[in-house]
Amino acid sequence: MPNMKRSLTIDEVPDVHKEPYVLTGYRPPQQPWRFYLMSIFSQHNETMNVWTHLLPCFYVLWLLKTYSDEAGFTTSDASSMLLLLFGTSNFTFHFSSAFAHLLHSRSVAAYYVTFLFDYLGIAFHAFTIGIVQYFLGSEASFFHAVHPWYPWACVLFSCCYFAANAYSHVTYRRCHSERALTQVVSFSMTYLWITSPVIHRIYSDFCNGNVDDVTWMHVNHILLMIIAGFFFGSEMPQRFFPGGCDVIGHGHHIFHVMITASVMVQLEASFADLQNRRHLDLVRIRPTDMSITAYLVVLFTSYGYITVIFVRKALSKANCS
């Protein structure tokens, strides 16, 4: 790798780049962008974080190609377009995370801005999880009980999640308790809401003796998300081995693997629901191109407004650092 610099210790990097219990492997700041792009092929404390979310991008594209060949996505079928949107957000979520972990070390400003887009990718994926599981995987009783406001509530939860995490990201230090609390509470509330259609479905399937393979797929992706949350919030195992998990074995690496496994199982379960025509077997109102467009217009307008506000705040804070 041309012009590769030695890695730095925790005492040699800006405070915003310091990870708890990670003592070595930091990339030097203020290098050309090419340096950070090429660092994807070198060993440092973000290598695993980049690859554990970059490789799934290719897997998602392969899955979507496979699903398209099997189910034949068409613009006239709004339900299949929802699944395509779900896969697109899955790709975006993984790519924005890999992008943030790869480039944030360049400067304080890069750290703030790249992870803002990481949160944006998560928020968008959360929205698509909610509407896909609502339209394709819920029980008819749940569907009609919350129609038509459930998708709009998904828009609201997604925007609130993005705004809350953007605010905590540019306001509090990495180890600040209020930042951790904001992340945990905002994600937990959003996740409970967007998975409520399948939580109700799982409960109904067990009560009615209708448990099948797809039911277990939905159970599995929820359990995998719980495991991911544990490693995200517990600082394990690195808290017991400071400096020993800098390159591989860090809890955030495990978090990345678990959350990827969860959303992949979720995507496969949603495709199985579409393929089984579950959304047609139940008496319900199907999504329309107009309704999906309306959700997305409001969603991305809100995202744009939130992004402008906090990018400005981030750059202002970075200039003062």
Query: Uncertain regions: pLDDT < 50 for 5+ in a row?
Result: none
Helix content percent band: over 70%
Please give the count of helices.
12
Instruction: Please give the alpha-carbon distance between the first and last residues.
Output: 31 Å
- Major β-sheet, in short? none
**What does the overall shape look like?**
globular
Q: What is the ordering of alpha helices and beta strands?
A: HHHHHHHHHHHH
The chain-level mean pLDDT equals 92
> What's the count of strands?
0
Give the amount of beta strand, in percent: under 5%
Structural class computed from helices and strand pairing: mainly alpha
Give the radius of gyration.
Answer: 20 Å
What does this structure look like?
This protein has about 325 residues and is mainly α. It has twelve helices and no strands. α4 packs antiparallel against α6 (about 150-170) and α4 runs parallel beside α10 (about 250-275).
Task: Provide a brief overview of the structure.
The two termini are 31 Å apart. Helix 2 (47-71) runs parallel beside helix 10 (251-275) and helix 9 packs antiparallel against helix 10 (251-275).
Secondary structure blueprint with pairings:
Blueprint: H1 33-38, H2 47-71, H3 78-103, H4 108-137, H5 140-146, H6 150-171, H7 177-194, H8 196-208, H9 213-234, H10 251-275, H11 278-281, H12 289-320
Helix pairs in contact: 2-3, 2-10, 3-4, 3-10, 4-6, 4-7, 4-8, 4-10, 4-12, 6-7, 6-12, 8-9, 9-10
